[in-house]
Amino acid sequence: MKSGMERVEIEITGWQRIAKSLFVLFILLAWVLMEKNAQAEDLAIEEPQRSRVCMMQDTIMAVPAIPLVRDGKTYYGCCEMCKAKIASEPARYTLAKDPLSGKVVDKAVASLLSVNGRVLYFESDVNRARFRKSLGEK
Ligand SMILES: [Zn+2]
Q1: How far is ligand 1, taken at its centre, from the CA of residue 92, in Å?
Q2: 107 DSSP assignment
Protein backbone atom coordinates (compact mmCIF):
# COMPACT_ATOMS: atom_id res chain seq x y z
CA MET A 1 0.00 0.00 0.00
CA LYS A 2 2.76 2.39 0.97
CA SER A 3 4.84 1.68 -2.11
CA GLY A 4 1.78 2.32 -4.28
CA MET A 5 1.37 5.82 -2.79
CA GLU A 6 5.02 6.53 -3.47
CA ARG A 7 4.61 5.49 -7.08
CA VAL A 8 1.67 7.89 -7.49
CA GLU A 9 3.77 10.74 -6.06
CA ILE A 10 6.63 9.96 -8.40
CA GLU A 11 4.21 9.91 -11.34
CA ILE A 12 2.84 13.31 -10.32
CA THR A 13 6.30 14.89 -10.09
CA GLY A 14 7.09 13.35 -13.46
CA TRP A 15 4.04 15.04 -15.01
CA GLN A 16 4.91 18.28 -13.26
CA ARG A 17 8.36 18.17 -14.79
CA ILE A 18 6.88 17.65 -18.26
CA ALA A 19 4.36 20.45 -17.70
CA LYS A 20 7.19 22.75 -16.58
CA SER A 21 9.24 21.92 -19.68
CA LEU A 22 6.25 22.51 -21.93
CA PHE A 23 5.61 25.83 -20.23
CA VAL A 24 9.21 26.96 -20.73
CA LEU A 25 9.02 25.85 -24.37
CA PHE A 26 5.77 27.78 -24.84
CA ILE A 27 7.28 30.98 -23.36
CA LEU A 28 10.32 30.61 -25.60
CA LEU A 29 8.13 30.16 -28.68
CA ALA A 30 5.98 33.18 -27.75
CA TRP A 31 9.13 35.26 -27.30
CA VAL A 32 10.54 34.21 -30.70
CA LEU A 33 7.23 35.07 -32.41
CA MET A 34 7.09 38.46 -30.68
CA GLU A 35 10.67 39.27 -31.78
CA LYS A 36 9.78 38.36 -35.36
CA ASN A 37 6.74 40.68 -35.29
CA ALA A 38 8.70 43.54 -33.75
CA GLN A 39 11.20 43.38 -36.61
CA ALA A 40 8.48 43.38 -39.26
CA GLU A 41 6.66 46.43 -37.94
CA ASP A 42 9.80 48.30 -36.89
CA LEU A 43 9.44 51.39 -39.11
CA ALA A 44 6.58 52.94 -41.03
CA ILE A 45 8.32 54.35 -44.12
CA GLU A 46 6.49 56.28 -46.82
CA GLU A 47 7.15 58.85 -49.54
CA PRO A 48 4.39 61.35 -48.75
CA GLN A 49 2.69 63.89 -50.99
CA ARG A 50 4.01 67.38 -50.30
CA SER A 51 0.50 68.68 -49.60
CA ARG A 52 0.17 66.18 -46.73
CA VAL A 53 3.18 67.55 -44.83
CA CYS A 54 3.00 70.18 -42.11
CA MET A 55 6.31 71.93 -42.76
CA MET A 56 6.19 73.70 -39.42
CA GLN A 57 6.13 70.46 -37.42
CA ASP A 58 7.67 68.20 -40.10
CA THR A 59 4.92 65.64 -39.65
CA ILE A 60 2.41 63.86 -41.89
CA MET A 61 -1.19 65.05 -41.80
CA ALA A 62 -4.28 62.89 -42.27
CA VAL A 63 -5.89 65.63 -44.40
CA PRO A 64 -4.32 67.93 -47.01
CA ALA A 65 -2.44 70.83 -45.41
CA ILE A 66 -2.98 74.56 -46.15
CA PRO A 67 -0.72 75.91 -48.91
CA LEU A 68 1.45 78.99 -48.49
CA VAL A 69 3.03 80.50 -51.59
CA ARG A 70 6.33 82.33 -51.12
CA ASP A 71 8.59 83.50 -54.00
CA GLY A 72 6.64 81.26 -56.37
CA LYS A 73 7.20 78.18 -54.21
CA THR A 74 4.52 76.35 -52.24
CA TYR A 75 4.88 75.32 -48.60
CA TYR A 76 2.27 73.65 -46.39
CA GLY A 77 0.99 74.04 -42.85
CA CYS A 78 -1.57 71.81 -41.11
CA CYS A 79 -3.48 74.79 -39.69
CA GLU A 80 -3.62 78.60 -39.97
CA MET A 81 -1.30 78.88 -36.96
CA CYS A 82 1.38 76.70 -38.56
CA LYS A 83 0.95 78.52 -41.87
CA ALA A 84 1.44 81.90 -40.12
CA LYS A 85 4.50 80.60 -38.30
CA ILE A 86 6.11 79.42 -41.56
CA ALA A 87 5.38 82.81 -43.13
CA SER A 88 6.86 84.74 -40.19
CA GLU A 89 10.01 82.61 -39.81
CA PRO A 90 10.79 81.30 -43.31
CA ALA A 91 14.50 80.78 -42.64
CA ARG A 92 13.56 78.35 -39.87
CA TYR A 93 10.61 76.53 -41.44
CA THR A 94 11.06 76.54 -45.23
CA LEU A 95 14.54 75.02 -45.13
CA ALA A 96 15.80 71.69 -43.81
CA LYS A 97 18.99 69.65 -43.75
CA ASP A 98 19.41 66.55 -45.87
CA PRO A 99 20.13 63.92 -43.17
CA LEU A 100 22.51 62.11 -45.52
CA SER A 101 24.62 64.92 -46.98
CA GLY A 102 23.97 67.66 -44.41
CA LYS A 103 23.17 70.04 -47.28
CA VAL A 104 20.49 72.69 -46.72
CA VAL A 105 17.44 72.00 -48.89
CA ASP A 106 14.26 73.93 -49.72
CA LYS A 107 11.20 72.07 -48.40
CA ALA A 108 9.18 73.19 -51.45
CA VAL A 109 11.34 71.08 -53.79
CA ALA A 110 13.09 68.52 -51.56
CA SER A 111 12.51 64.75 -51.88
CA LEU A 112 10.27 63.73 -49.00
CA LEU A 113 10.39 60.69 -46.79
CA SER A 114 8.42 60.00 -43.66
CA VAL A 115 9.71 57.61 -41.00
CA ASN A 116 7.10 56.82 -38.35
CA GLY A 117 5.22 60.00 -39.28
CA ARG A 118 8.30 62.23 -39.04
CA VAL A 119 9.20 63.96 -42.33
CA LEU A 120 12.77 64.11 -43.65
CA TYR A 121 13.90 66.26 -46.59
CA PHE A 122 16.50 65.16 -49.15
CA GLU A 123 18.35 67.09 -51.85
CA SER A 124 17.60 64.32 -54.38
CA ASP A 125 15.64 61.10 -54.92
CA VAL A 126 19.00 59.31 -55.06
CA ASN A 127 19.84 60.47 -51.53
CA ARG A 128 16.40 59.48 -50.35
CA ALA A 129 16.80 56.00 -51.85
CA ARG A 130 20.25 55.64 -50.26
CA PHE A 131 18.83 56.67 -46.90
CA ARG A 132 15.95 54.19 -47.22
CA LYS A 133 18.45 51.44 -47.92
CA SER A 134 20.48 52.44 -44.85
CA LEU A 135 17.37 51.86 -42.71
CA GLY A 136 17.65 48.18 -43.55
CA GLU A 137 14.58 48.12 -45.76
CA LYS A 138 14.10 45.08 -47.96
ZN1 LIG B 1 1.14 72.21 -38.35
Answers
A1: 14
A2: T
CA of residue 77 to ligand 1 center, whole Å: 5
**Residues 9-67 pLDDT 10s:** 667 678 888 888 888 888 888 888 777 665 545 789 999 999 999 999 999 998 899 99
Distance 16 CA to ligand 1 centre (A): 60
Query: How many residues are given for the chain?
Result: 138
Domain boundaries, the chain: 9-42, 45-134
Global pTM value: 0.70
Q: How far is ligand 1, taken at its centre, from the CA of residue 107, in Å?
A: 14
